[in-house]
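Question: Now follow the chain.
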Amino acid sequence: MKNTQNTRFINLDDKQKINYIKTLFCNSDLITALESILKDEKKDLTIIKKVLDVIKEPLIIEKLKKDNFLKDEKSTKLFVYSKIISILTFYGKSVILNEFFKSIDKSTLKEIAKYEYENKTDTSVNNKIFMKYCSKYKPSKTADQNFDTEVLLLTTEMEKYNETKQNNKKNKKFFYVITFIILFLLFLLSIFFYQNIKKVKKYEGRIYPGIFINDMSLSGKKLEEAIFLIDKEKEKIENGTITVANPNGDYKFTYKEIGIKIDSDYVAQELLNYNENLSFFKKIKMIRSNKRQKNFYLKGYFDETSIDSFVVTLEKKLNTSPRDDGLVIDDSHNVSYDKGASGFVLNREKTKANIESVLSAIKEKTVVIAEGDVIKNNVSNSDLSNINKKISSYTTYFLNSGNRGHNITLAASKLNGKVLRPNEEFSYLKVVGPYGASNGYLPAPIYLNSKLSTANGGGVCQLASTLYMAQLKAGLQTIYRVNHTFAPAYVPKGLDATVYSTTTDYKFKNQYNFPIYITSYVKGNYLTVDIWSNENALGGKTYEPYSFYKDGAYFSYLKEIQNGRVIGERYLGRSVYKTK
């Protein structure tokens, strides 16, 4: 069982204290966060100094601005100073308040004084320590036309009255005026009390406005209703979640999974004591403002073994190696860019301290930061993020069996995933070859010197021809291509490409300003080659190869099409085949 919040705070090191205060600021409103830690402040101002360090951080400033409708960083910091002074005043910590004012430089004191007077806080009117340090900085009407005239008028008249009483006691007229004013104020005060006593009476046996349990308002609830709601909140939280925030993603766990128990009895008693011991003026203020005044939080109880076991579980989930960026292919052979991810090594002790700190004010949904070391990944292929569209595809049929089927499948796996960056040339021999047994290829039928023969790698020409058709449909520039001796049946005549050993290669070039990515795969008896690039690579054009027979040869061309119209035509070559 853990000790009080203050004991845990004292035992934390400086960085943990900062993280603890950040967590309070992120998970509750400013007044509640400050009140929960400042009521135990000492003369050395340790907590206040940490608070002032935290509000220098831009993220905290932005949250405070948003939550409290403040316009800029300066007004946000002055707002925090004002709340610190108000809370110290409320708890009667005059010695600490005196030390706090001593620690503030003159320029800041001047800004605080102006802020307090302009906003008519209780401190600016009633607090003697505040007046001791800040009264000399009180703005005048001529110095600041925007100063609140009502506060200035009240303060000025009281000073005149005191001065007149001491220096001119014989001024009866002034005495009568003051007497009249006092009697009139007493009359107004009697009306005030009469009207507000009736309001306070309505809340007998009920919770006053502005009191919350875990951010749920209990305003106007009967005491037994409030206790019932606290028990319901306990049940809800027990089934709630704690989210562990990590650079590579968040993980959620239930409190039950961690072994945390929720105690609601103590908070019910604290709530009832607070509600019953409110002063008359505090009750009136709460009824009139109907704003949040006090937030009670349920606490989580746990033992060391449960938390240690949970941290070990986190370590297994969060500890990861870095993953570099690159392209990935899903099960449907679609291509996408993966930016990779950094690695992470959990810091057990710091994470454990963060977990324990958030359990001091537990909610249905709580966030805790997993502390640790981030291991940066390599990002060297960011240009591939431009690849977002399949710009061409071609499929051919083959009998997927025996050594030829093996060779085609093997060649497709070697071609799959090939990247060609702008102006880079592709060589089929370098990517798919060599076609010998040392590279995994098996003997299969080929045509050699116009005769049917057998050689390692038989069948790789079908992949070359399939790739050639996909290349043409992508509009890529052919560098070197040779047709077969005998026309193959898997592509149109005049649109095939043969390769052999180291003597006959097939080459093309990526002339686009974007990289291209080639995927090739076998599914059943079908071989497919897809070419991917950026959607703007082809400039809205498509390409269609075709061939026709004339004078003993096949002539091949490439149509250039835009908006359904042929806008150009490119000559590809002349292919002559032998007959068997």
Summary: The radius of gyration is 40 Å. Confidence is low (pLDDT under 50) at residues 1-5, 142-159.
